[in-house]
Structures are given as C-alpha cells and as structure tokens.
Specification:
By secondary structure, this protein is an alpha+beta fold. The chain contains 20 helices and five strands. Helix 2 crosses helix 4, helix 5 runs parallel beside helix 8 and helix 9 crosses helix 10. GO terms for molecular function: lyase activity.
C-alpha cells in the first residue's frame, strides 16, 4: 500500500470491521438465499431507475449537467438516452431510482440501499467491464454497508434531521466500487474515510421541492469518487465512523462509545441468511414505506368486508412516531403527496390502489380523495412505537357512516422480507416499469439477463440494453 498510512494493529472498530467484510466478499461464500435476494433487489431497483429516468428531477439534473458542460461520456445508465462519464452516470441513476418512491429499503435503518448501490455498481462495472459475479458481490457488499451503518444510526439520526439514504449512502456506493476495484481492507477503509466528508441529506424535503430525489444520486457519485480517489492514491483518516470527530458522533449524536459498536450486528437479519440484502423490503405501492402498513389495512377491509370510500366517516390511525410525522404532510406536489398519510390512505380507499398514476396534478385535486383526507387522523400508538424499528406497524380503525368500526393491525407490511413479493411479482413490477421506456421485448431481454447476472462475462452489454 502506497498511501503512507499505517496498518491497523488494534482490535477492529466499526470502520475496520466493515472494511474487512467488504474486502473479503466473494460470491461463492454468499449463501444462495442472499445471492438470489441480491438478484431480486437489483432487478427491482433497475425497474425503478428506468421508470424514473423521465421524471422531472432526473431531467433537471441532466439539464444542469449540460449547462455546466460536464457529464458527456461513454457510460450507459438504465433508462437514460445520453451516455455520461462514470460519476455523472451514477448521479443520474441514483436520482432516477429514488424519484418515484418505488425503490427498496431496509426497515431497521430507514434507508434505501438499492438507489445508491445499484447505479454506482452499474456505472463502474460497465466502465471497467466487470464480470457479473464481481458485480453481484459488489451489490451484496454495498447493501451490507448501507444497512448496518444506517441501523446503527437510526432513529437518532432521523431526529437530528438527517436522511440516512443520503448520509450513509456514500459509504455503500464507495464500498460497492471497492469490490469492483479489488481493494484490500486498507484501501476499503480509505474509501470510507474519504466518503465520510461527503455524507449529506436533510429531511427538509418534507416542506416540499424535489431535492429528496437527488439524495441517492449525490451519494452514489460521491462514494464512487471516494473509491476512485483511493485508487489514485489520496490518503484518508482511519476509523472515520467511530472517531470522536467522525460520522457517528456528528450524525447520530455523541451519547455512546462507538468504538465498541459491533457494526455487523446492527439492525437485524433474515432467518435464512445473515446478509442484510436478504432482509430488505420491496415496495408494492408508490408511496413512502412508513405508510404501507396503513394501505395494507384499508385495502384488506375493502377486499374482505366490502368497505367503500363513500361508507367512511372517519379513519383513526395509530403508528410509531417517525411514521406519525407524515400525518400532517400536504399534497401540493407529487413529492409531498407520496409522503402524506391522509392523501395516500384516501387514495387507497377511493381507488383501491396506490400507483404512480395516482399522484398526478389532477389526482391531487380529485374531490373524492380530498373529501376523505380531512377524516383521516394519525397519532402515535405506544405499542407500535415501542417495537419500532424492529417492525413498521400501524393500527387502523375505520368508522363507517352506519356506526360500524372496522379494525386492522398490520405490524409488517406487504413487500417485507417476511411477506415478500414473489419472483413473478418482482418480474411483473420490473416489466411494468421498464416496458414503457425500453419496449416490451427489450425489457424482457434485460430481465432474462438480470436473473443470471452472475453468469455474465461483462456487465457493459447489460448496461447498454438497460439504457434508453
């Protein structure tokens, strides 16, 4: 190693433990359950990226890059027509993937790993002509880093105003890139040390605007840049996560000794696999994940008891405190509407679904939906708050016009690792999102390649077929 940095001689802290894990990731050592989960989440994320490539935030990024005279290159990105340099491609891909609230997540860390990890890995993998096995190993590593660091921060970082996808994402994309570049543990730790200075993302988006969409884009680019700077020889501090002036103390608060944190045990794991990617969720609804249990509840009432919107006199929702903050979010913009409990739950009641088509300007002004929003009240439920973030629960009581009270408790929403989408449902979601942009035939071809991505000798052709 030529970066004038000493080898670590002490028992590994969180930074070194993650660096050791990332440097040691080999797909042959990853269990079949997690390996298949990595394929599924790659497919799910790419579908969201392709559909999000034409949303306003992505187009704004492309226009900004053009105005700045940067970005044009040879790297293809999912759903995007223009070819970009590797850093710009990662930024645009991350923005696309998060832009429609369809990307995956990890409950215990309240983080969206796919929208950061997949575009960074795809951009660098295509540029360096990486083999599929290494690409999928990079996905596994990136998810692990995102999920474990986020779980160690959550919910303290949330209450300090930080968005884990943006702040933690730089480490995830950087470590995914480190796998593709074949870094040893020293260099991985250097990537983490460099990326720490680029961690960013605030919850100001709850007040409106589209900046939230760019958080994974920024994280994907900056983490990838940290890896490239490491490759170029830039030295960085050790122990950047747990150092007294490091990431955890700054973002999660200095109320504990992070040097003693067992980072690989942060959060939780699936009974079938210790890898974090195996315990991530996918979104069946185009809305904030905190609202999904509530949607499950009212849709079940409609299906099993024939509840219709015109029967609803009041909806009382109890959930955990983080979710309850969305009970007062408005819906003047698509961004806020997808975060708004009243609007999303009213949409589910009126339309029997929550899809991208339900957040347009006309839909946000639908009198049938607006008439219901004022009848929906959200409060903190002690039981739901007690078990969060182990579970994302909600208790929903619907009072009907004739005086009946229908009740549902959903402690784990559909799409979670314990209530997963089937492979057929994952494929259907991908084709539904990718088909309109790529054409049905090319979307099907891409899907077939993705199911066997670890067999590919070069991911560059995959990136090309995914591009518009």
């Amino acid at each position: 190693m030529d970066m004038n940095m000493p080898d670590s001689t002490l028992a590994p802290g969180p930074t070194r433990a993650l660096a050791n894990f990332v440097a040691g990731v080999e797909l042959a050592k990853v269990d079949d359950f997690a390996r298949h989960a990595a394929r599924r989440h790659t497919i799910d994320t790419l579908g969201a990226m392709i559909a999000g490539a034409t949303q306003d935030a992505t187009l704004s990024v492309e226009r900004a890059f053009a105005a700045a005279g940067i970005g044009v290159g040879q790297v293809a990105m999912a759903g995007v027509a223009q070819r970009y340099d590797v850093l710009s491609a990662a930024y645009i891909g991350g923005t696309s993937g998060h832009g429609l609230e369809l990307d995956d997540g990890y409950r215990a860390g309240s983080v969206h790993p796919g929208g950061v990890v997949v575009p960074a890995a795809l951009a660098l993998g295509a540029q360096r002509h990486s083999v599929g096995r290494t690409f999928l190993a990079a996905i596994v590593a990136g998810y692990e880093v995102a999920c474990r660091i986020a779980a160690a921060c959550h919910p303290r970082a949330r209450w300090r105003g930080f968005h884990n996808t943006g702040t933690v994402g730089v480490f995830a994309s950087g470590c995914a890139a480190a796998v593709l570049l074949g870094f040893d543990a020293d260099r991985v730790e250097n990537v983490i040390g460099t990326a720490a200075s680029s961690a960013a993302g605030l919850f100001t988006f709850l007040a409106g605007g589209d900046v939230k969409r760019t958080h994974p884009g920024h994280a994907a680019r900056e983490g990838l840049l940290a890896a490239l700077l490491t490759e170029a020889g830039l030295p960085a501090p050790r122990g950047a996560l747990e150092f007294k002036d490091g990431f955890f103390n700054a973002y999660a608060g200095g109320d504990m000794d992070y040097t003693r944190l067992d980072i690989m045990a942060a959060g939780d794991s699936h009974p079938s696999s210790a890898y974090a990617v195996a315990n991530c969720y996918m979104k069946p609804y185009a809305a904030c994940r905190h609202i999904h249990a509530m949607v499950d509840a009212v849709l079940d009432m409609a299906a099993s008891e024939g509840l219709t919107a015109d029967q609803v006199a009041a909806v009382d929702i109890g959930s955990y405190a983080v979710a309850a903050t969305h009970g007062t979010v408005g819906w003047t913009e698509m961004t806020t509407a997808q975060m708004s409990i009243p609007f999303v739950v009213a949409t589910a009641l009126v339309r029997g679904r929550v899809t991208l088509a339900d957040f347009g300007e006309a839909e946000r002004a639908d009198p049938a939906i607006l008439g219901l929003t004022g009848r929906i009240v959200t409060e903190v439920d002690a039981e739901c708050d007690e078990i969060y973030p182990r579970k994302r629960g909600a208790k929903v009581a619907v009072t009907t016009a004739d005086g009946r009270v229908l009740r549902r408790t959903v402690m784990e929403p559909y799409g979670s690792a314990s209530k997963p989408l089937s492979d057929d449902a994952v494929a259907e979601k991908f084709l539904g999102l990718a088909g309109p942009r790529l054409g049905d035939a090319r979307a099907q071809q891409a899907l077939e390649m993705l199911w066997r991505v670890d067999e590919l000798t070069d991911v560059a052709p995959l990136a090309e077929i995914l591009a518009a």
